[in-house]
Request: fold
Amino acid sequence: MKKILFIVGSLRAGSFNRQLAREAEQMIGARAIVNYLDYSDVPPINQDIEFPEPEAVARLRTDVKEADALWVFTPEYNFSYPGHVKNLFDWLSRPLVAGDYETPTVINGKKVALSGAGGKMATAKCREKLTELLTFIKADVMELQTGIALNLEAWTEGRMILSDEQKAALKVQVEAFLKFE
Ligand SMILES: Cc1cc2nc3c(=O)[nH]c(=O)nc-3n(C[C@H](O)[C@H](O)[C@H](O)COP(=O)(O)O)c2cc1C
Reply:
């Protein structure tokens, strides 16, 4: 069965992007194994501590390696992706052994899907820039993405309720993602 790793790009407890990930997880149901990446202890990238890799980074790389595909659900911060999301991919882009640029990194060729919930532009800029970053580090980014423009209720009450149209768009992405090989 396909193993999928969800990466939620928001650290806050009530995150809309985590709620979006849960919706996608429900739509996937028993058709794949879904795990959520815990990256709370991954340190900021620092070349002084790259070799040997810190334990949390080793775990990050193992989790990514063992997944058949990744799905990133992330908010947009100032027309881009959050810094901690960049930090993960910076670590994943680096060699395991100092100076070894021949051996492919764990992110090389990895299938990645992107979605995001945010303001009026539905995280379009964030996903555009994240696509650019992921392509640069040789990940295989799925073209079909879902952007959710949060409604007033979400902003005022902290509850994300997707419209039928938004649910349908997410479902289309779920089905495409399950076939993305
Ligand atoms: C530093 C910062 C910058 C933000 N910039 C944007 C932005 O450029 N575009 C946008 O749609 N929302 C922006 N927001 C608002 C987020 O979309 C909103 O806080 C959202 O709830 C974050 O996602 P989460 O609920 O998953 O934490 C920003 C929020 C923060 C904290």
In short: The pocket of flavin mononucleotide is lined by residues 10, 12, 15-17, 75-79, 118-119, 121 (CB under 6 Å). The helical segments are 16-28, 55-66, 83-92, 124-136, 152-157, 164-179. The longest strand covers residues 111-118. The mean pLDDT is 97.
